[in-house]
Write a structure and sequence with these properties.
The structure holds 2 protein chains of 2 kinds. By secondary structure, chain A is an alpha/beta fold. In chain A, 30% of the residues lie in helices and 18% in strands. Chain A has one domain: Rossmann fold (3-Layer(aba) Sandwich). A 5-stranded mixed β-sheet of chain A has the order 2-1-3-5-4, with helices on both faces. In chain A, helix 1 packs across helix 4 and helix 2 packs across helix 3. Helices cover 44% and strands 18% of the residues of chain B. Chain B is built from 13 helices and 15 strands. The chains are: A alpha/beta, B alpha+beta. Chain B: It holds the Pfam family NiFeSe_Hases. Chain B: Keywords: Iron, Magnesium, Metal-binding, Nickel, Oxidoreductase.
């Protein structure tokens, strides 16, 4: 379970906030990671893992802050490496990083992908400097926790 | 809810540290201005720190940059220890240097292999490079992995290390742990050497910058985690605590950035400055490789910064192995640093350039004032100058190829910004 983001950039902290919320849960066999999204590290973190769930903030147009979107990313369809919902956009850019879609493409080029990858993209309202989530994103957190816990605990043993 | 019901236009993943935009004004065929809005100075953090305990800046400022948290932690610790009158040396200083070597290798390998090399080889990005030359990208990732092992062992984890504290470390690794780390690092030295040979063969456009260069200097070794003075190319060295007498940050109206100047002049920090000012402190191996790669007594071509980064990566791997070899665990793993009323200064060489911290601390242990001058705000004026020249010489190009060229120009400096990747909103106003 990888929470991508920066808790000093308000809603970008939703990934780390989710990880913090999961730390109190009994989730055997689940590794919780906070990540800055840097692709070399991401592909090291996820290579070969049976299921990886990545949670990250996105800015969208038009915007519905707090809404989140689940994508079960097709990993081995090399004819269509860019999953439609993770399409790399010229203006998609984390600082220093190439972004999650590019981490995925790099992982595919190097055969370093998880067995299954699910991405939750949470719509951010505000990614200015600050330590608190905006109200709609904070309100989305319990639903997000519920969704990922259900997914993590329904793994075949 | 089905995400497929809606087309998402993802305009940004949010780890931006500023907006990346370049605004060029061309009047009668000449570039009048090239304004780069790339970097948000850490004023939020400076404000956040005021009133906090003097023990908190290392952890809080580490969050300013995901790529160089160790630089922030180190400059913060040094400045606070200076304010409290407790210099930290010996085995703790050496352990800091080892951790910092991990950050240099990690940051340099990322920049060389995933960001910079594709520019020289005609690939749009590292993914295309990996498709054609998987072995090359694998080598870069292997270097990164070795550096992450240093960060995880000494820093507690690979991002935002948690083992660093004012006065030293919460826990020091054991001899046996470092021996295992050395096993992993030894093959990384070969990879680092191969990297120098590889990048030395790239084609480098002719360009020599005449800016002044500024770097931390340590008479005993290539300055990384600290030093005794600040050395410059056009003037006498000065003491760390005189930084603010020479470097002035000015607010520039067109952007939120602060532009720094050195005695009113444009200057550059980072690999070119370190190599030019301190190369004689490199190891014989690194110096030999630098000479083989065509680097002389100075390097003022920003395209060749990739060669300097490769040489520095060799040095950092060697240095890490040397530090491990001579390591003995500091007992205790930190020195007590009682709070006292005072002001302290700290500098270190972040992978992308000089990072300065200054803290004012009260007798009660509260941070009264915090000033952080990161490399990117120091380098901003030099980057803009380079962009102005690049745009002037290439005005015949359409906006799209001109934008790519500007991105490449910016990437030479490895700044703390999003446009290190593929992200520059170029506006050319032709009047």
């Amino acid at each position: 379970m990888i929470g991508v983001g920066n808790e000093y950039r308000r809603d970008d902290g939703i990934g780390p906030a989710l990880i913090a919320a999961l730390e109190d849960r009994w989730l055997p066999d689940v590794k919780l990671l906070v990540s800055d999204g840097e692709p070399a590290r991401l592909i090291d973190d996820w290579v070969g893992v049976p299921l990886v769930i990545v949670v990250d903030a996105v800015l969208c147009e038009p915007s519905t802050p707090g809404a989140f979107y689940r994508t079960d990313v097709p990993l081995h369809d090399h004819g269509h490496q860019d999953a439609p919902d993770l399409e790399s956009h010229p203006h998609t850019a984390g600082s220093h990083s190439l972004g999650i879609p590019d981490a995925l493409r790099l992982g595919q080029a190097l055969d370093r992908v998880p067995q299954r990858l699910v991405v939750y993209a949470v719509e951010a309202a505000d990614v200015a400097f600050g330590t608190e989530l905006s109200a709609p994103v904070a309100a989305a957190l319990p639903g997000l926790v519920h969704a990922v816990v259900r997914e993590l605990t329904s793994l075949p043993q | 809810m089905s995400h497929r019901a809606r087309q998402l236009k993802v305009s940004s993943l949010a780890r931006v540290e500023g907006e990346g935009a370049l605004h060029v004004i061309v009047r009668d065929g000449d570039v009048e201005r090239a304004d780069l809005q790339i970097y948000e100075p850490p004023r939020f953090f400076e404000a956040l720190l005021r009133g906090r305990s003097y023990t908190e800046p290392p952890d809080i400022t580490a969050r300013i940059c995901g790529i160089c948290p160790v630089a922030y932690q180190t400059s913060a610790c040094t400045a606070i220890e200076d304010a409290c009158g407790v210099p930290v040396g010996g085995a703790i200083r050496e352990l800091r240097r080892l951790l910092y070597c991990g950050e240099w290798i990690s940051s340099h390998a990322l920049h060389i292999y995933l960001l910079h090399a594709p520019d020289f080889l005609g690939y749009p990005d590292a993914i295309a490079l990996a498709t054609d030359h998987r072995d090359l990208v694998e080598r870069g990732l292997m270097l990164k992995k070795a550096s992450n092992a240093i960060l995880e062992l000494v820093g507690g984890r690979a991002i935002h290390p948690i083992n660093v504290r004012v006065g030293g470390f919460y826990a020091a690794p054991t001899r046996a742990q470092l021996d295992r780390l050395a096993e992993q690092l030894r093959p990384a030295l070969d990879a680092a050497i191969a990297t120098v040979h590889w990048v030395a063969g790239f084609d480098f456009p002719d360009l020599e910058l005449d800016h002044e260069l500024l770097a931390v200097h340590d008479p005993a070794r290539y300055a990384i985690e600290g030093g005794t003075t600040l050395r410059r190319t056009a003037g006498a060295s000065f003491a760390v605590d005189a930084f603010s007498n020479h470097v002035v940050e000015e607010h520039v109206q067109r952007s939120t950035a602060l532009h720094a100047s050195l005695d009113d002049g444009r200057y550059l920090t980072g690999p070119l400055a370190r190599y030019t000012l301190n190369h004689e402190r490199l190891s014989p191996l690194a110096l030999g490789l630098a000479a083989d790669a065509g680097l002389g007594d100075e390097c003022r071509n920003p395209f060749r910064s990739i060669v300097v980064r490769a040489v520095e990566t060799v040095y950092a791997v060697e240095e890490a192995l040397r530090l491990i070899e001579s390591y003995y665990p500091p007992v205790p793993s930190y020195v007590d640093v009682p709070a006292r009323d005072g002001v302290g200064h700290g500098v270190s060489e972040a992978p992308r350039g000089l990072l300065y911290h200054r803290y004012g601390i009260g007798a009660d242990g509260q941070v009264r004032s915090a000033t952080i001058v990161p490399p990117t705000s120091q380098n901003q004026a030099a980057i803009e100058d380079d962009l102005r020249r690049t745009v002037s010489a290439n005005l015949h190009l359409a906006d799209e190829p001109l934008t790519r060229l500007c991105e490449r120009t910016i990437r030479n400096y490895d700044p703390c910004i999003s446009c290190s990747t593929h992200f520059l909103d170029l506006t050319v106003e032709r009047k």
